[in-house]
Amino acid sequence: MNDYAFGNELYELRKAAGLSQSQAARLLGLSDKAVSKWENGRAKPSTENLRKLAALYGVPVEELLKKREAKKPPVITKIVLTGGPSAGKTTGQSWIQNSFTKLGYAVLFVPETATELMSGGVKPAFFRSALEFQRAILRLQLEKERVFEEAARCLQADKVLIVCDRGTMDNKAYMSELEFAALLREFSMTEVELRDRYDAVFHMVTAAKGAERFYTTANNKVRTESPEQARALDDKLLAAWTGHPHLRVIGNTGSFEDKLKHLVAEIRSFLGEPRPMEIERKFLIEYPDIKWLESLPNCRKVDIIQTYLRPQGEYEVRVRQRGEKGSYFYFKTRKRTLSDATRIEMEERLSQDEYLRTLMDADPSRRPIRKTRYCLTWEERYYEVDIYPLWNDRAIMELELRDENEPIRLPPRLKLIREVTNDPAYRNSALALKEPEA
To answer: With bands split at pLDDT 50, 70 and 90, how would you rate the model's confidence at 1?
Structure first.
């Protein structure tokens, strides 16, 4: 298992000792590569090398041994695999099983709830309304996920990946806005709670968009949609999940095998395999037409408060409150810059109490950043447009990529001023800096 926490402990000890990786390696009689692997969490030092490290860094060897051997509960990641009809989800699950089992994950699959019900004879036609059928789906979906999460915590595994074949927000695509609002009230849940309860969402685009000759209903006995209906449903499903902090769209560019490789690569990137790396490009744009953004079915507004904590060595640390209308999730992120567009990023969810406690360690030289984020899906990409209260003439648009050199097109009606990926003045950490007192 990649132990980033222990690796970071070794990194901090080396920095506190004032040594570079090369200097530490030379004093230990080892290669730079060995020290790098330990600090990146990809390997752990032997007991003999741990003794050398303890002597070099001036810490008790017992302390390092205890931290190296500490048994932690499984790291559980819950993702959603969604998409329009005939998107390749079934084959995608086989690829996920094969790929991530080899990486040391215990992989669990929560079966598609609607298909289970209909295959068992519980048909939508039996209900008086779409709301009643979706109520049954949501109740069973929530219970299945609870059971799978309980099982994951009991497994003898370091890493568990729970893959939900569709998630709770898929229900929205099959209901009117009024019906969906009624469902939320009945379950005493908010849309944010339904959508953001998963760590990441991967939307596989229906074959009816760009791979029409492969579109079929033959491999699913409860699928009846025409290609036109499949395309419309695909749009509704993507719109339902838009606003999630980690949504990725897997399109039909290239062959079906290319699509599956893309899916696995996106999941690996999110999980930090082989390491937790984020590639992001940032653009300064003219202040957008807010009414136009809010009118789009594939755009969702979220409110963010971002607070920077005191730095930890070369890591920038922040906590974030993210959500809308009083419903929020909380995250802690540690970043280390590798290049202008690439960073090592480690993120964890916090409870509200944990979030409030971390605020006591806020960096006094920085103010909290408040912004309104518009999450927009367009041409199989996920764009984030940030509106800051300090500007009324410009905004920031961000885009996460798998490759720094991927070609990029801006959505219509968003007017580019210039790219600011390499401009430190437009980093959130810089915008948060307080002006010096007179």
So the answer is: very low
E strands present in 309-350:
316-324, 327-337, 342-350
- Residue type, position 289, single letter: D
Say if residues 39 and 7 touch (Cβ distance below 8 Å): yes
Q: How far apart are CA 271 and CA 277, in angstroms?
A: 9
What is the three-class DSSP state of 347?
strand
pLDDT at position 90: 95
Domain count, the chain: 3
Question: Which neighbouring-strand residues pair with 347?
Answer: 333
Of all helices (H) and strands (E), which one includes residue 342? Answer: strand 342-350
Full DSSP string of 12-35: HHHHHTT--HHHHHHHHTS-HHHH
| Residues 91 and 176: beta-carbon distance below 8 Å | no
Please tell me the pTM assigned to this model: 0.82
Nearest to 87 by CA among 219, 190, 188: 219
258-262 long-range contacts (CB < 8 A, ≥24 apart) are 259/88, 259/204, 260/88, 260/91, 260/92, 260/95
Listing DSSP states for 75-90 in one string gives EEEEEEEEESTTSSHH
Residue 48: give its domain's CATH number. 1.10.260.40
- Which 3 state secondary structure label does DSSP give 423? coil
- The rounded distance, in Å, linking the Cα atoms of 123 and 181 is 23
Q: Tell me, what CATH number does 102's domain have?
A: 3.40.50.300
Are residues 171 and 138 in contact, defined by beta-carbon separation less than 8 angstroms?
Answer: yes
Distance CA 200, CA 329 (A): 14
Domain containing 412: what range?
Answer: 277-431
Check if the beta carbon of residue 246 is closer than 8 Å to that of residue 289. no
- For the chain, counts of helices (H) and of strands (E): 15, 14
According to the model, what pLDDT value does residue 438 have? 46
pLDDT above 70 covers a percentage of the chain that reads 96
pLDDT in tens, 12-60: 899 889 998 889 999 999 888 888 888 877 788 999 999 999 999 999 9
